[in-house]
Amino acid sequence: MFDCAIIGAGLAGLVAARHLVDRGLSVVVLEARGRVGGRVENKILNDGSYVELGGQWIGPGYDSLQEIIDELGFETIGLPASGNLVVRLRGKSLEVPSSEELPALTPFEVSDLGQGLLRLRRLSQRLRDDAAWRKANEAWLNQDLRRWVTSNLRTQGAQRRFGEVYAAAFGPMPKDATLLEGLLQVTSGIDLETMLASNGGLHQKRVEGGVAAVADAMAERLGDVVRLESEVTRVDHDDTSARLTLAGGEVVEARQVISTLPPRLAVALEHNPPLPQWRIEAADKVAPGNVIKAFLVYKEPFWRDKGFSGQSSADEGAVRVTFDTTADTSEHGHLMGFFEGADADSLARRSVTLRERAFVDAVVRAFGEDGAKPIGYVERDWGAERFTGGCHGAHFAPGVWTANGPLLAQDEGVLHWAGAEYASRFNGYLEGAVRSGREAATRVTRSLA
Ligand SMILES: Cc1cc2nc3c(=O)[nH]c(=O)nc-3n(C[C@H](O)[C@H](O)[C@H](O)COP(=O)(O)OP(=O)(O)OC[C@H]3O[C@@H](n4cnc5c(N)ncnc54)[C@H](O)[C@@H]3O)c2cc1C
User: Mind listing the pLDDT tens digit for each residue in 268-292?
Assistant: First the structure.
């Protein structure tokens, strides 16, 4: 019997295993896929360079992941190019200089922005600490973030700067986010002031070789602790141990279990005794997002010569955010974009050619006609991945976070939960996965003591 069985060899599972093995415990990691990494994965291109199909950006506050990156001897690389960010609003392009060159705000605008941020910080604290207030103000918390910004920041300069940085850091424009989402982003990551001071917010650095290479290196160190092609289908548990049944019928016994599956996949496994109803209902409302991450490969990164950073965001079109992700080892230029939400839902049913064309159109709108002739297109539809069930991370439906969010991470006897969606900080992100894996390992060690 193992001291601990871990379901899933994504970052959370690998980190948990690493900590438990370091403490001298016997561990097995059961991974359904034929590879480790889960939502981080590299695709090697014909020229030998790679693109990262899943999570790739790391930013301020990613201390736990950075520790692993350093320990394993990986380097990080910054945003590839300086140059202007393109923001497209109502059919018009606005070029925003990268943050070092952002136009200075007037003292009045700075103070306005400061007041607004202070108010946001107070609200996010209240959201975290006062459950009764959260419930009573649910409808108000679900107003669109732009409405809150325009009624709480008085100057247009401050409102604009807030919108630009929020979109660059988190993806959606304030009009496409709710106040609640904004507050969760602010509380779950580094404070917004740091974001405002950073070039690109969370999207600051990536790992040379890709985050998937970090996962591979962790798995290599763990050796035969990690078992691939080992899908867990059933969990029987009592007060002292658990028996995990694999798809082929094999049974693995362990004194403790860490499940690192996203909530919906986790509760879909057969559990005996059954999981509490509230957990099943909450998991059902933690809908996985739907994202197709796509890359256009160009003969060279033409946008750089034109003074663009390759970063763009738009309020229309199927691809609304782009980044330059050209690998240092690549002979060519890579632009990354996302099909998200409803666009991903409808375009996932159409042809690859159509999606490629939609992406090309977005690049042409942002960076001009040179974008019309890519030499390659790569994509990964995460919604179609059976062992992920949607991405980036899960979206908490209104009321679910306020009612049950933090509870989701609570242990059920010998069953522990880890993974990006269970993290109290950096929820949904790489850093959240790492932290939650480490914290689950600590709880397991305590339970075994
Ligand atoms: C397109 C995309 C872009 C992203 N970009 C970023 C980014 O730039 N920065 C950032 O911080 N985050 C990003 N994220 C989020 C980040 O990748 C995830 O939060 C993180 O990788 C999740 O790790 P995890 O270990 O919690 O879960 P997972 O990686 O999902 O790991 C769960 C593992 O469980 C396995 N599994 C599933 N079912 C079973 C079963 N029945 N039996 C056994 N094993 C099973 C899966 O195969 C998987 O390996 C992105 C995600 C996506 C998809």
Answer: 999 999 999 988 888 877 766 677 8
Report the distance separating Cα 317 and Cα 323, nearest Å. 16
Q: How many structural domains are present in the chain?
A: 3
Q: Are residues 297 and 441 in the same domain?
A: no
One-letter amino acid of 441: A
> 70, exposed or middle or buried, with CB in 10 Å at 0-12, 13-18, 19+?
exposed
Measured from the CB, is residue 28 less than 6 Å from ligand 1? no
SS3 306: coil
The angle at the Cα of 428, spanning 423 to 431, to the nearest 5 degrees, equals 70
Last residue of a domain, one of 329, 362, 384: 384
- Cβ of residue 390 lying under 6 Å from some atom of ligand 1: no
Lowest mean pLDDT among 3-12, 326-335, 364-373: 326-335
439 lines ligand 1 (CB under 6 A): no
C-alpha torsion angle, residues 256, 28, 245, 444 (rounded to 10): 10
User: Which residue's CA is minimally distant from atom 19 of ligand 1?
Assistant: 429
The three-state secondary structure class of 392 is coil
pLDDT at 199 over 70: no
Q: How confident is the model at residue 228 (pLDDT cuts 50, 70, 90)?
A: very high
pLDDT confidence of residue 313: 73
Q: Which atom of ligand 1 is nearest to the CA of 62?
A: 11
The whole-angstrom distance between residue 291's C-alpha and the CA centroid of its chain comes to 11
2 sits in which H/E element: strand 2-7
Q: Rounded distance, CA 279 to CA 293, Å?
A: 30
Cβ(55) – ligand 1 distance below 6 Å: yes
Q: Which two tokens stand for residue 206?
A: 């990536």
Quote the pLDDT of residue 241. Answer: 96
In a domain, 88, yes or no: no
* Domain range for 24: 2-37+211-286+396-448
Whether the CB of 179 sits within 6 Å of ligand 1 = no
Distance 137 CA to ligand 1 centre (A): 32
Examine residue 390 and state whether it is found in any structural domain, yes or no.
no
Look at the alpha carbons of 124, 437, 403, 340 in this order and tell me if their dihedral is positive or negative.
Answer: positive
* Angle at alpha carbon of residue 448, lines to 6 and 231, rounded to 5°: 15
* Protein residue whose Cα sits closest to atom 20 of ligand 1: 430
